Amino acid sequence: MCKTLNILLFFFLSFCSFGYTQKVKDTYSACEGTINIFRSNSFTLQFLGQKGNSNRFSQYPALKHITSGNQIWFSFVAPTNGSVSLEISSKRTGLRLIVFDAAENNVCTDISSGNAEIKRLLEPADVSVIGLSEHVTEAFQYPLQIEKGKTLHFVVIADHDHPEYIQMDFRFHSDDPGFSEYKSKEVNLKKDRETPSLIVQVRDKETGKPLVADLILKGVRKYDGMYNVSDLVFDINRKSKIEFYCDHEGYFFKDSSNIAISAEKDNLLLIELEPVRSGKSVQIGGIEFIPGTSQITENSIPKLNRLKDFLIINAMLNIEIQGHVYEPGEDNSFSGQKMSEARARRIMKYLTDHGINKERLSAVGYGNTKPIYKNPKTYSEEQANRRVEILIK
To answer: OmpA-like domain location, by residue (predicted)?
Structure first.
């Protein structure tokens, strides 16, 4: 399993099986599928092994010789004035790095038309490590200065068409000595003893021990933002519905939305994360299908993208996608078995269509043979039986 710190990645990807237009170019091997990096991090990514030539840089005389379509794109928006350094390494030689300054219009259009500015171009011969560093060599150029709110776009290019892995250490160095990459690292932000509180706790699900995790909260107004905490307390002045996104290295991500928060009493939000290891399975909530079909609902796309992002930044993991259905009064019908298999395959297709190597995935259906609730009494218990799980292989 790769050692990696979780980063938040957002892609806007789709394909025709779910009522969308297929856009293979929207994977992260092209500008349209750019991975967004929000803070300093170390992680592993995989080239998709794209074959054929790319004419993305045809408008740049200095780049016309670069034709390989085996690329990884990512971008970074500066939270303050500062500089960016990075180191990228691979087992193979033949790495190239181009850094573009984002233009005023759509950056992908501007790169295609030759209007985006090239800030750095690295293409040293016969090296497997390149980057931006104060220690300048043939393979390293100076870090890039960047102003608050500006965006840099990076593309790493392989001279081969193999699905190789790269290791990347990305660092943002702020000019503000008081800058923190998190909104707050304080555990207790409560200011008024008389008002109700929201108490957030992040715990290892197996041991109950605290985990200092990356946490994004939305829906609590002045406390919205990113935190790096195991325990967080703040005031609640009005009832609301919140959502959260939680990540920790070596654990499955966990998200939830529409959590009702009371303004009349204290609220406890317990986030239990499950460790990632071979043989471990976890339910991926929020993935739903149109009844009686394997069609994934549009509301499920964000959760599928989170699963995709998890696999991108944990590029050494292989998973088995497991489909389960709920059939009242049935042990396991032929149709239920086939439906569970079709749903697992549909999720696998979504992931492969959006850049995940199919060699890392398998899909199985269990029909109605492994219900969580053998005699469900509520709709939520029925939904728990009608689920998707992933197994780390």
So the answer is: 276-393
